[in-house]
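Quick one - inputs below.
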Amino acid sequence: MEETEGGSGVELLDKLTILADAAKYDAACTSSGLDRSARPGGLGSTMAAGCCHTFSADGRCVTLLKVLMTNHCAYDCAYCVNRRSNDLPRAAFTPRELAELTIAFYRRNYIEGLFLSSAVWGGPDRTTEGMIETLRLLREGYGFAGYIHAKAIPGADPLLTRRLGLLADRLSVNIELPSEESLNRLCPDKGKGAILAPMAQIRDGIRESRGELAQYRHAPRFAPAGQSTQMVIGATPESDRHILTLAQALYDKYQLKRVFYSAYVPVSDSALLPARAEFKPPLLREHRLYQADWLLRFYHFRAEELLDDGAPNFDPRVDPKCSWALRHLDFFPVEVNRADYEELLRVPGIGVRSARRILTARRVGPLTFSGLKTLGVVLKRAQYFLTCSGKMLEGLRVNPDGVLRHLVALERPALAGHEPEQLSLFN
Amino acid sequence: MGWTQVSYLYDGSFAGFLTCVFDSYAHREEPMSFSTPEDGRLTLWPERRIGTDQAKARRVYQSLDKKLGAEGKRLAVQGFLTCLEEKELHLWRFLRLGYQLGPGFTRGLADERVAAVWKAVGHLTGEAHLLKGFTRFSEVDGVLVGEIEPKNRVLPLLRPHFCARYPGEDFVLHDRTHREVLLHRPGKWAIAPAEDFRPGAPGEAERQYRRLWRRFYDTIAIAERYNPRCRMTQMPKRYWGTMTEFQTEEPEERKELAP
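Output:
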């Protein structure tokens, strides 16, 4: 192991490289959930919708400066690139260095803020204290009002986690793996309890802070943009149904804003993990899980509607909503001019925007298929599931097999590059 | 509708366009085309030159709230900033429909006249949203200087965002396409035409931060997930020309700010 010290130009470049590289597997990079402008004399603002500043070569949104405080780690989690036993260069930012870098990037509009995480070095408390010092410098020293996402360190003193949450906009605790059994096998140093305890603390802190804000406008704000989590998928044998049910429980019980899914990228030769040589990250599976996650959060679906014991995994060929629709043909066709919002959302190809537009436009007069096109509804999937004033689209022949074939064909170009390794996962 | 069909020649300003709207109603004329002196187009219809009249423009502008509603007004005003082909014609038809039907006409998204303006404004606001993220500034002599090449005139939409974000900074944002700049000093701002805009050369500290940013950008991608098509869908290539992470820098020159 080599140590990088000091803050001059080249060394800062090396440090940034090491500590960004160590942070890149974290999936969460969002800056949403909060509207705030700069205070007088300060710097920065946040947007409720979030804002992507660039997209990396893997197509992922880059919105925050995502780095670790340090990648020196006391733990030895098998799936993690920063595990103690992995031989790689190690480095650590000082709070001042990192605060300066964040401000310099922010002023140039490279980023929306900072995503600060850390490997655990010198114990969870000391690690959290270093993070707190960085955030305190940013908020108090530089008057920084941009977005800060901080990772709560499991096992840290609840008082420290609370201080972290008063400085950050969003907190997250990674649930890491989708089941306790896998967790015990792959990260012997972390337990399920150690992960869920801070999660519950953050949930209660947010709830309390909301209550106080309702009474006093200037009450301190604890993690005002909520909390999120992420789990690695494909490293362990859980089914999609298991993962989605867990995500739903996290949304219900811990009021999370987001659950992120991260396709396992082989970083280890541990016998407990899939062999590195022939393993491809299950990107299509991850994509289907995100689609289903959207259905849970915005489309009023429940996990048990999408998957059951008979079909515990998603069909790789079509998206989860199409797949649900094909199994519930009795629900269709939906009448565009009468259906309510929830019913419209169940139609493949109709999203939140299209459904809202339909509700708006039909107040003026009955909609036809050409009217739907004018207002921007894409019909290539939806046409099989809709009627306008009682009529299907003219010239359309419908039988369930044909619809499936057509929907699969529509999806195929988007899947190029995923096959064929991906498909075999589901057989 | 029995109105005389004409072609309007005006100065290309928003006040000029509102004057055209006023005159078209005053003279019961239906414009079939709009042109500005720079276009130098020939038309099939009798051409009328409309001189911008601030008083007429103000009367039309004040009518928008009452006759078109808040949403109708927003679409009409922002519609003028879009790159929609023949935007004046579309906007005139949109306004005429609004004056006939009153507020709430914007709900008729299935009507071509509403949909055209609505779609163009969607393109404008979408581009402005992307540029809130994709705009890059460089620090030159204590001033933040940025350049963009948008299709629509997005500066009026970016103005509140960047002014709220950098309230204590001096900054300049140059729109190369429409040759306009947004200027900001603490507490003051202006949008002004800029015919010849040349930012100064960056110092060593600026070049160092560009190197750091490029390195971060290259490092944060996961090689096993390489997906150039997804990146291009999310961030079309036409934005790359003004983004720091896609420029290679020779020690003493900056390619990204070349005209």
